[in-house]
Specification:
Number of strands: 13
Radius of gyration: 37 Å
Shape: elongated
Strand order of the largest sheet: 3-4-5-6-11
Distance between the termini: 105 Å
């Protein structure tokens, strides 16, 4: 090889070895053009296109069935139903069913739309020159023409099976949200009006899990109690304790201002619901000098020496009191349920 001969592979792209001319522009930003369009099987075989159409319609139909499953799950599964599902462990059956069905409903709409676009809509690449921000009448006309062409190429008007199932899936998905509004209206049952407390149930200390005696409650102390027979291992524990949790406070009888409160107490020991009447937060802060309890969520303050009336904050009504006494074994016991529903207001509450 002579010193004047240069191997062809060492030349820049486009350099002609015979004449030394550049056949391709040196500009790195030059338009390389578009690769030739390769038709899909659906473009040349109507049977394949029909199969894709049925697949898309099938996914939209699955979305509709999943939405129906969401509504059915909301009606069938109780709130406190716990099931074991591998690998998640113990989970709420209602939450799992709602998440699974709503996720499936949204997934199949998306999957169907993607499959529709990839197999049936036009996949021809078109290069469009940039234009000024202000559209000219010609551009507007072109946009409308492109929109009409895209609609025609998608087959939206021609492929009625896809169109109808898509409309069905999109129309049914919002029903999931509408069904959730049920809890904002009247409930078919009166679960919020009563708790586990009945006459004769002993007050159980939530820390020691032992029945409470009057001597266990010191003046100025705050003790939390739950009904006898309720265990933290019970399947319905969270539902029941959310309504039946008690605050036990001992006040000097002469400091109690409300006559009925004094009658419902035992030697100055009063029992009030622990559930705040604003939004249902657990109350846990007690000031023994003033006999005030404070909800840590929104600072609603109640006077336990005066019928637990609201003296500050957004709570709408006093804490319900539980009438208590002592049984023949010397333990504190309930004389019935709360006279008023516990917690915040709800639809049926007057």
């Amino acid at each position: 090889m002579s010193s004047q001969e240069i191997p062809e592979e060492t030349l820049p792209a486009g350099q002609d070895t015979a004449h030394g001319a550049v056949t391709v522009a040196d500009d790195p930003f030059a338009d390389p053009g578009l690769p030739p369009h390769k038709p899909r099987i659906q473009d040349i075989d109507e049977r394949a296109a029909r199969r894709s159409e049925r697949a898309v319609a099938f996914m939209f139909t699955l979305s509709m069935l999943a939405t129906i499953g969401f509504i059915a799950s909301y009606v069938i599964f109780p709130v406190d139903k716990i099931v074991y599902i591998f690998p998640f462990g113990r989970v709420s059956a209602l939450n799992f069913a709602l998440g699974l069905t709503l996720g499936a409903a949204l997934f199949f709409i998306g999957a169907g739309a993607v499959h529709w676009a990839r197999t049936l809509m036009s996949d021809v690449e078109v290069a469009d020159e940039r234009h000024p921000m202000a559209a000219t009448p010609e551009v507007k006309a072109k946009v409308m023409a492109d929109f009409a062409a895209g609609a025609a190429e998608s087959g939206f008007g021609r492929r009625k099976l896809i169109r109808n199932t898509l409309f069905g899936a999109l129309a049914m998905v919002p029903l999931s949200g509408i069904v959730l509004l049920r809890d904002m209206g009247p409930l078919p049952e009166k679960k919020l009006r009563s708790t586990m407390w009945t006459k004769g149930l002993q007050l159980i200390n939530m820390n020691t899990h032992e029945p409470l005696r009057p001597e266990d409650v010191a003046v100025g102390s705050l003790t939390f109690a739950m009904p006898e027979g309720l265990s933290e291992h019970d399947e319905h524990f969270q539902t029941e304790i959310a309504k039946a949790a008690l605050m036990i406070v001992r006040i000097q009888p002469e400091d109690i201002k409300d006559k009925r409160e004094l009658e419902w107490s035992h030697e100055g020991i009063v029992a009030f619901s622990k559930i705040c009447t604003h939004v249902g937060c657990p109350i846990s802060l007690y000031e023994q000098q003033t006999h005030h309890v404070l909800c840590p969520c929104h600072q609603s303050t109640f006077d336990l020496s005066d019928g637990a009336r609201v003296i500050f904050g957004p709570a709408g009504h006093p804490l319900p009191q539980l009438r208590i006494g002592v049984n023949d074994k010397g333990f504190l016991e309930a004389h019935g349920d709360f006279e008023e529903p516990v917690g915040p207001a709800f639809w049926e509450r007057g």
